[in-house]
Amino acid sequence: MSQVQKYNGQDADIQLWTFPGGIHPPERKAPANQEPIRRFPLADEFIIPLRQHIGALSEVQVSVGDHVRKGDLLSAPGIEHGLPVHAPTSGEIIEIGEFPLNHPSGLSGPGIRLRSDHEDTWGQRHPLPDYRNQSHLTVLEHLQRMGIAGLGGAGFPTARKVAGARGIDCLIINGAECEPYIAADDRLMREHAAEIVRGSLILQWMTHASSILIAIEDNKPEAIAAMREAVAQTREQLSAEQQSDFVLKVVVIPTKYPSGGERQLIQILTGKQVPAHGLPADIGILMHNTGTAWAICRAIEHGEPLLERVVTLTGESIGSPCTAWVPLGTPVQHVLAHVDFTPEAQQRVIIGGPMMGFTLPHLQVPVIKTTNCILAPTRKELPPAGQEMPCIRCGACADVCPASLLPQQLYWLANAQDYDGLKAHHLADCIECGACAYVCPSEIPLVQYYRQAKAEMREQAIEHHKAEIARQRFEARQARLEREKEERLERHAQAAKAREEALAARKQQAEQRSASGTTDDAMPDANSDPVASAVARAKARKAEREAARNEESSAVTGTDTVQAQDPKKAAVAAAVARAKARKEAQAAAQKDTETNTEASTPEDKKKAAVAAAVARAKARKAAKQKDEDS
Amino acid sequence: MSWVLGIIALSVLALVAGLILGFAAIRFRVEGDPIVEQIDQILPQTQCGQCGYPGCRPYAQAIADGDEINKCPPGGQATIDRLADLLGREAKPLDAAHGAEDVKKVAVIREDECIGCTKCIQACPVDAIIGATRQMHTVIADECTGCDLCVEPCPVDCIDMLPLPTKPERWTWNLEQIPVQNITDAAATTETSERGPA
């Protein structure tokens, strides 16, 4: 807040601070920044990866064979702020599948292949010129639908960044472009200053920031002049009320790498540090790249989705270094073909600058929203990394670290895979600017170690999360199995009870039958003499069995005469039937135990568990047998 | 006389302290063994049973009761080291009798060969297979722990254990593994070649 008060009054100069560390590598912005931004003929084929930004993957909305026009939606705005992709030109969709990605891993990912018809006809455009009369939500949704992502570095969806920012006091438009070679923002500011300023005003309207600071490094005097002029013109057009509402200013900052880093630039302009694990919005600051401001302006005023961007084409292997408007999805190969690319043996092609860029494994990858530079250096110009030597503990890396970390210590810890130690030394705050590796006299690729350690830590976090889910699912399943087992036992108990009741009923029947006959005295004695009662019970059971057999055989044969004639045969048949029944029961029991043991012990290895399960199964079987016998 | 006083005072103090300790032992008694919980947190929760126990929690219990800590192949050496760290035991190499450390895999059902017997569903320890009797089954890849338990029961052998594909968002910056293609060669073939190696 105090800072804003300081730069009230339009022309009062801002006090600048600095960030710790930083380096001054050769800038080499010329000759790429000398020529106006060029435009090449359209490529024959475009590869549009579905993911060009941070966030969820969006869903494809077209199918193979569809004819699309320039700016048509190819994928739906996904859930969780996934950005859509658009057709960079008119043509036919010829393939939807996996394509090599513009990514350091060289892996493939989902994408759409489009064959250009070279007519470049625009589809329906929906500008939103009266945005000031619309709700913020409408404008945010519009920006989301237009696929606007941060063009500076990571490609964070702009609508999400703006929507997530509350209580913004200061809006910073980042035109620092501190990395050597890169001149895309430089040229854009020189040629499209007015649009950048108008885009900034849209951002100001959405965030209610009380100041807009356009920060440019002092090695771009032409861009500074162009932006100053555009700002002066815009200020004239603004109403008096608006003028008093907010401050709009171009700030020239000293050239130092990495002053274009979000946290570093905030420190330079305000002297404040963004808290670790926090966002600039936490201290009332929102930062956007100049390219993003330009894209916002185009999307609102002309309804143009993010279809192309300025790409710097430079390096000594490129005959005519320049900047160019390249439609997103254009293969790198096609772009290089128009700038007199003469590869040397084992030519490296780097996406991004020499400090933070990555080498492409091959040239068939497309230009995407975050591709600000294609660098093709000769070996003499940018020698490949030499032999890594042991750390001599000179401490040069700690002197240049813009995040005030201890790169040397992080290096030891990363080598030892001491992830707790890395956490304690705030590896997460490393912005991977490469300053430490640049000054290292032992040529240790420090950033590479940090990236691997970061990826490993992220992987561990994912694994831990997945393990937690697996544990919950396992426990839920155990609980379910337990419940089912109890239900089964309950059912068995009920069945046994029913059986007993039926038995008792039959016994009573038999008793009644025998009572109607002669043996009347057996039962009354039962209580007095246990032996007699047992004998009586056995007799009764025999009688009952006899009766049952009689019933059965009579049911089968229909006549009593057969049974009377051939009692032996009938007895044999009954025995066979009994044996069969027992066998069946056994088989059923076996099956039951099998299915039970299967779930917990499927492999022979786990002998202990199997033995336990078998013992359990045997016990259960025995219990069942007893149940049946009684 | 003062030494008698001293002894009495100390005895009274000891008695009071003993009473407090005795009370605390009953009042703040810990149900279960918290170390089991901590061990369970370290185990990979694959629930594969390769350790000889039916799941990770039973193995955690067994470790707490004194079993070896080197019986978990999915966790590998990293898990053994962390267990050794937690329990103050010696970190041993993985016991080969229980299997070898392997890349992370995920079960995939060849769906047109599936006969819908539900046997794999019964075997899955984390309920990551969906399907019904005589209906095709499939694996929820995100929930699959790669435990291997569904492969054995399948009567038609239609389940494969495939290594988890590397995705760019989970790539671990292993620059040595990038398929390197010589750009000069690629430039020679130029625009006629439509696509590079996928």
UniProtKB/TrEMBL annotation, chain A:
Principal subcellular localisation of the protein: membrane
EC number: 7.-.-.-
Keywords: 4Fe-4S, Cell inner membrane, Cell membrane, Electron transport, Iron, Iron-sulfur, Membrane, Metal-binding, Repeat, Translocase, Transport
GO molecular function, one term: 4 iron, 4 sulfur cluster binding
Requisite cofactors: [4Fe-4S] cluster
Start and end residues of each 4Fe-4S ferredoxin-type domain: 381-411, 421-450
Cell location: Cell inner membrane
Gene Ontology biological-process entries: electron transport chain
Superkingdom of the organism of origin: Bacteria
Cofactor note: Binds 2 [4Fe-4S] clusters per subunit.
Compositionally biased residues, Basic and acidic residues: 485-510, 541-552
Pfam families: Complex1_51K (PF01512), Fer4_7 (PF12838), RnfC_N (PF13375)
Residues reported to bind [4Fe-4S] cluster 1: C391, C394, C397, C440
Subunit and partners: The complex is composed of six subunits: RnfA, RnfB, RnfC, RnfD, RnfE and RnfG.
Family classification: Belongs to the 4Fe4S bacterial-type ferredoxin family. RnfC subfamily.
Function: Part of a membrane-bound complex that couples electron transfer with translocation of ions across the membrane.
Protein name: Ion-translocating oxidoreductase complex subunit C
Name of the coding gene: rsxC
TrEMBL record, chain B:
Keywords: 4Fe-4S, Cell inner membrane, Cell membrane, Electron transport, Iron, Iron-sulfur, Membrane, Metal-binding, Repeat, Translocase, Transport
Chain residues that bind [4Fe-4S] cluster 3: C124, C144, C147, C150
Stretches for region Hydrophobic: 1-25
Top EC group: translocase
Free-text cofactor note: Binds 3 [4Fe-4S] clusters.
4Fe-4S ferredoxin-type domain location: 105-134, 135-164
Cofactors named for this entry: [4Fe-4S] cluster
Coiled-coil spans in chain: none
Any single GO CC term annotated in Swiss-Prot or TrEMBL for this entry: plasma membrane
Residue stretches making up the 4Fe-4S domain: 31-89
Annotated residues for binding of [4Fe-4S] cluster 1: C48, C51, C56, C72
UniProt-listed PROSITE patterns: 4FE4S, 4FE4S_FER_1, 4FE4S_FER_2
Entry EC number(s): 7.-.-.-
Pfam families, per the entry: Fer4_21, FeS
GO MF, any single term: metal ion binding
Family that this chain belongs to: Belongs to the 4Fe4S bacterial-type ferredoxin family. RnfB subfamily.
Subunit (UniProt): The complex is composed of six subunits: RnfA, RnfB, RnfC, RnfD, RnfE and RnfG.
Protein name: Ion-translocating oxidoreductase complex subunit B
Species annotation: Aliidiomarina halalkaliphila
